[in-house]
Amino acid sequence: MRADKRRLEFLKQDAVQGFTELIGLKPVSMKPGRFVTRIKMSRRLAQQDGFAHAGLLATMVDHTAGYAAFTLAPEDHRILTVEYKINYLKPVSGEFIECRANVLKPGRQIMVCEAEIFSITGRKKLLCAKAILTMASVPGDRVKGPKMHLRSLETRV
Amino acid sequence: MRADKRRLEFLKQDAVQGFTELIGLKPVSMKPGRFVTRIKMSRRLAQQDGFAHAGLLATMVDHTAGYAAFTLAPEDHRILTVEYKINYLKPVSGEFIECRANVLKPGRQIMVCEAEIFSITGRKKLLCAKAILTMASVPGDRVKGPKMHLRSLETRV
Amino acid sequence: MRADKRRLEFLKQDAVQGFTELIGLKPVSMKPGRFVTRIKMSRRLAQQDGFAHAGLLATMVDHTAGYAAFTLAPEDHRILTVEYKINYLKPVSGEFIECRANVLKPGRQIMVCEAEIFSITGRKKLLCAKAILTMASVPGDRVKGPKMHLRSLETRV
Amino acid sequence: MRADKRRLEFLKQDAVQGFTELIGLKPVSMKPGRFVTRIKMSRRLAQQDGFAHAGLLATMVDHTAGYAAFTLAPEDHRILTVEYKINYLKPVSGEFIECRANVLKPGRQIMVCEAEIFSITGRKKLLCAKAILTMASVPGDRVKGPKMHLRSLETRV
Q1: Domain extent listing, chain C
Q2: Interface touch D82/A136, C-beta < 8 Å
Q3: Which value does ipTM take for this structure?
Q4: C2-156 sits in which CATH class?
């Protein structure tokens, strides 16, 4: 129990770094198999017509579903995105964007997830995009990310 | 001819604003039905393991394919993303990320595009993701983006 | 009202011909925006391991979602599939296969649908696949199918 | 060498049974990482407007890509479809339908494939659909298909 809570707390912090820090992603709730995030909309996140950029919404479904999968993975595993498909139902122009993701099928190696994007203005909440995603759960020692490498690249710049 | 060139020049500038300015997207070449963009990788674009965030790559395929479609659309049309699917073949950890997109099937209302993501380090260029995308070409007067609205939102903040 | 009922009755019959007759597809219920179909499983519908062929399930989601879209289209329109994506969650080995589809976002030209595949044995009903689909609603006079052509081809054989 | 040839010959035969026998699928060529199949079009494979049913084309991309993956899998493995996405570019009304598939990224557990559908009439060959597919390569002893079960079901009928 307490371990679970610690794990969720860890994931909540792990979820915001690098790109997700840049876009202002905030985890708002999570439980095993579910994850919810929000972003406050601003001009720097918009595309050429002023709507939220489709890539921003893709980032939200990817990340939120990834962390929904994380909640069901062993602690020494990492989650990598295999693929996803997203349908944009309506352009997003609300004050906040919310993404709700859940694991449709858990698995040791493969997890299939769903995610929905809502545009929120005041009390109005509109479904604007829907995605199905395939995630891979991979032992951490097989994921050698280039953290150090990136740091050194930037020092050089 | 000259008109075409002017159009491509317009699209090259139009492609970088808001979210794509934030992530440092640069158009590198374009011709009717094709568009190529690049990003210099940095830590603020990475996910939790230091790789380029899957959402960043999705943003690149979305935007680059969208502008490939733009090159074939009437001047008074706007391009909106209907949907896409992206498969991640390898984690991206190069110095630069390149996206190459082309229109597989042009159409008055619907354009189907393909896009590929390459990780580039020195002379090494590695195919890391592939996407198929469906774009809608929409008369500009039917796309009322919230540019003003966003500006006023931010002034309030 | 009565017109609606007549329309649904027409669609129920229209849905079973050619390929869907070959695979034994049966519409089991429908209402505006929804369509449900069933197939009795048999060896001739199986793949190499004896499970229902993934292509059979794709046919069911395609057709069932297409007719869900049909229920919301003008009477003189035809529905053509733009694209879809399907995730297979579990191999299907039940006695019956059921597909439930609904329109997620209606539209004059584009309709986005969802569909689910269930494997049914006795009272056990298992979610085995899930799809998101994009359908085009097209004026009937722009869809010139090759019915006559096919008939003549077969006479020649 | 000879073993490879035997393996390909086995796959060529294995590819036609059950559902693929019903639809008249014929393997026409194969080599490691590639598979090509054909179907002669007929009315019983058509949808309501006389075109090849979208589900038939999905079956072809699924099966052809699956066997392209099979050519790279260990002999004691089976291939199961994880998911795919297919875009329909043009309705298919040719005499023959050809599907060409290749493995984009081989892997021990996951293989990503591409497949294209061509409509063929005389010497005319038209690209009509394109798909990206994710396949799982699974040890054969973990795939317990219901072959016997199906046989007994049918005896009962």
Answers
A1: 2-156
A2: no
A3: 0.91
A4: alpha beta
